[in-house]
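Re: the 230-residue chain
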Amino acid sequence: MIPLRDNIPSRRTPVMTVGLIAVNILVFLNQAMLPSQEAAGFIKLYGLIPLEISSGDLLVPHPVPLYATVFTSMFVHGGLFHLGGNMLYLWIFGDNVEDRMGRLKFLVFYLLAGLGAAAAQIWANPASKIPMIGASGAISGVLGAYIFLFPRARVLTFIPLGFFYRVMEIPAAVVLGFWIIVQVLNGAMTLGVQTGGVAWLAHVGGFVAGLVMVIPFAGRRKRLWEDQPV
């Protein structure tokens, strides 16, 4: 299922959401212009390596303090599809969460959700030497906040069915519920295994962090008829 848009209009320009998307794109463009070998090195330099954090020993000479890689890693992506998928979810769901929290609170929330995602991945694979990169963990926190704040929202969704497809509006709880179930199942299968690819448990950690932090950052959700279309 690929979300296309939701039915909750923003009440003001989502400056911070647009800013985060812009920074991610600029970092990716900078990385893409590097020679292939240097681009691979860029991931190691600015990615989060769980073994380094858990042991305190550096595997590569980072240009930033070791623990700063928790944050720099959120803005590095492994490819165009990795970047595009993350930015699509941030664009669709981030504006409404920013609307409810306010711009500065939303930025802090986003970074803390990414921190929670990193903590989950380090806990799951503390000896991993594979750099963790991408905005997925932080965006997972945004999704956790969204599903709490807008439980009756609906999402226009592209659903591929083999050679056919359907575009239909379905509840956000279904879209995001399906998403988190996939993350949990894949995370359980990779627990303790040092493999490349997607940091599934980071997604779960970010989602849980978002659910935990949503009330302190956004307050309890309003009555459904105050901010949501039926």
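Strands lie at 2-6, 154-161, 164-171.
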